[in-house]
Backbone:
């Protein structure tokens, strides 16, 4: 599965994308104007938490994988 990470449209703030507890994240911060894609092969269906490790608690969510 490929997870397209939205284009970083904030002018001066880098971000990253990490799947919590899976040791999987973008290899480097996504700079303003850049996009990234993360490859992920889920071992099960369910919900996977994600976060921006540069801004924890502010940019969090859930990735839902259905069978």
Residues:
């Amino acid at each position: 599965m490929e997870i397209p990470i939205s284009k970083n449209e904030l002018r001066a703030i880098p971000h990253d994308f990490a799947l919590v507890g899976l040791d999987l994240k973008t290899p480097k911060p996504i700079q303003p104007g850049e996009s990234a894609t993360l490859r992920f092969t889920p071992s099960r269906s369910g919900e996977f938490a994600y976060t921006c490790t540069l801004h924890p608690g502010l940019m969090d969510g859930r990735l839902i994988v259905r069978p």
About this structure: The chain has one domain: 2-65. The mean pLDDT is 87.
